[in-house]
Amino acid sequence: MLAAASILLLAGCTEKPETPPGASSGPSLSKAALPYADAPTVENPMSASVIQRDPCDVLTPAQISSLFQGKPEVQPARDTGVAQQCRWADISRGSSIGIQLLYAARDGLSQFYAKKQSNGLWQLLEPVQGYPAVAYGAKDTRQTLGDCSVLVGVADNAVFEVDVNVADAKAGTVDPCKDARMVADLAVTTLKSGA
To answer: Secondary structure of the chain in the HEC alphabet?
Structure first.
């Protein structure tokens, strides 16, 4: 547990494109019943309304403190056109964490599964507290840049993303997707508690 906590101290997020691959600001990609494209069914789904909250409240102050060695800079919540996004960064170390509540992904993980062949990174992860998770990206930059994005389906029609960029000194030596999944676990705890 101590090793996991020390890795998390190095965690963070990358600057993401305005529209995450697979997300769309338009209507649902399919009239098919959810899920589709081999996306898993979300057992015990949360209300899709959890995606409508302030993304800066998805991680509590105590959780944020546990993830950084010092007090991180907070980039206020912003609307990217497909998601509400919040970021925390330790500029001096090059690490950051981002949370994106993907309100435009109305088909949940199915939208991303439908386009998985176009991703340079597509890796199924162990579920986060029972919620399906996948690491993905247009390119696989885990070793070169030390970053990873993880999607978590909290309902068949609701998904959030955690973006992590490990400290510059750790890039290529730790798995940023492992860190992103751990941050996602903290986020799910907060979302489930309604805090």
So the answer is: CHHHHHHHCCCCCCCCCCCCCCCCCCCCCCCCCCCCCCCCCCCCCCCHHHHHCCHHHCCCHHHHHHHCCCCCEEEEEEECCCCEEEEEEECCCCEEEEEEECCCCCCCHHHHHCCHHHCCEEEEEEEECCEEEEEEECCCCCCCCCEEEEEEEEECCEEEEEEEECCHHHCCCCCHHHHHHHHHHHHHHHHHHCC
List pLDDT tens digits, range 16-75.
444 455 554 444 444 679 999 999 999 999 999 999 999 999 999 999 999 998 899 999
* pTM of this structure: 0.84
Structure tokens at 116: 């998985």
Main-chain dihedrals φ then ψ at residue 191, nearest 5 degrees: -60, -40
Tell the residue number behind the tokens 């959030």, with chain if given: 160
Q: Which residues contact 75 (CB under 8 A, 6 or more apart)?
A: 86, 87, 88, 89
What domain range is 55 assigned to? 2-193
pLDDT of residue 13: 38
Residues above pLDDT 70, as percent of the chain: 84
